[in-house]
Amino acid sequence: MSEEEHAIVVHLDRLLQEREMTLTELADRVGVTHANLSILKNGRARAIRFTTLTRICEVLNCQPGDLLDYRPR
């Protein structure tokens, strides 16, 4: 597996839809840029800070496992 590939799936779209929230609203409430959340949402993030993950979980009222999944290739 190359450095660019990973087996983590991000379910941010589903969580936002379930909560009727936009990515822009989430970015504002979490305190990160729309661009950074977009990178996460599209599965292109190489890392996420625990503080950001904590804020996302607080705002979306979810657990990290609701947001991230491991899917072996």
Largest sheet: 2 strands, antiparallel
Q: How many angstroms separate the termini?
A: 9 Å
Strand content: 5-15%
User: What's the overall geometry?
Assistant: globular
Helices, by number, come to 5
CATH superfamily: lambda repressor-like DNA-binding domains
Q: Find the CATH topology.
A: 434 Repressor (Amino-terminal Domain)
What report would you give on this structure?
The protein has 73 residues and is mainly alpha-helical. The chain has one domain (8-70): Orthogonal Bundle (434 Repressor (Amino-terminal Domain)). The chain has helices at residues 12-18, 23-30, 34-41, 50-60, 64-67; strands spanning 8-10, 68-70. Helix 2 (23-30) packs across helix 3. The model has no long low-confidence stretch (mean pLDDT 93).
Q: Can I get a quick summary?
A:
The protein has 73 residues and is mainly alpha-helical. The protein is built from five helices and two strands; from the N terminus they run βαααααβ.
Topology:
Layout: E1 8-10, H1 12-18, H2 23-30, H3 34-41, H4 50-60, H5 64-67, E2 68-70
Antiparallel strand pairs: 1-2
List keywords for this structure.
73 residues; mainly alpha; 434 Repressor (Amino-terminal Domain); two-stranded antiparallel ribbon; 2 strands
